[in-house]
Amino acid sequence: MCNLVLGSQSPRRKELLELAGYRFVVRSSEVEEVIEEGMTPEEAVLHLSQVKSESIELLEDEVLLTSDTVVSVDGRILGKPANFSDARSYLQQLSGRTHEVFTGVYLRTNEESCTFFVQTDVTFYDLSDNEIEWYLSTGEIWDKAGAYGIQGKGALFVEKIDGDYYSVVGLPISRVSRELRTFNVSSG
Prior knowledge:
The protein is of the alpha/beta class. The chain has one domain (about 5-180): Maf protein, CATH 3.90.950. Helix content is about 30%, strand content about 25%. The chain has helices spanning about 10-20, 40-55, 85-95, 130-140, 165-170, 175-180, and strands spanning about 5, 25, 60-75, 75-80, 100-110, 115-125, 160. Strand 1 (about 5), helix 1 and strand 2 form a beta-alpha-beta unit. This is dTTP/UTP pyrophosphatase. It comes from Halobacillus litoralis. Pfam families: Maf.
């Protein structure tokens, strides 16, 4: 049995692993998350997951899990907002539209690795300026791709979802669980 290491400070990823019954330690990286010009959303989440992983040292009996999530609309990546203006713009772009949420996962030991991404389509209702301003005031916009959290008050904007809800939260836990079994890591 291998020991699981979560390479992330994300409270959402930590909560999802705990919910699934995993025991793990947190050892996050301090790398700068840079999406290179011209990368597709799929390439971006896989690249960022791998860069995070490669910055963390592992012991012989450990399996490292790193992940990254981006929101994409019309092929443009909406990362984490830097300020209120970014967040407002992101929410305006998502209003009344379907967007894609991509979560990339990188699992590795010192000998082998596995990487994959999950895409989920999310449709927002039309948002009024008042709704956007209210949401900005909640503070939920920070540290979230696309400036919203589906697991919080941002759920009020969601008309429908096609795909893995937990991937939108930040970790496709059912797929992760299946992949971890190949590394001899189980929950419970």
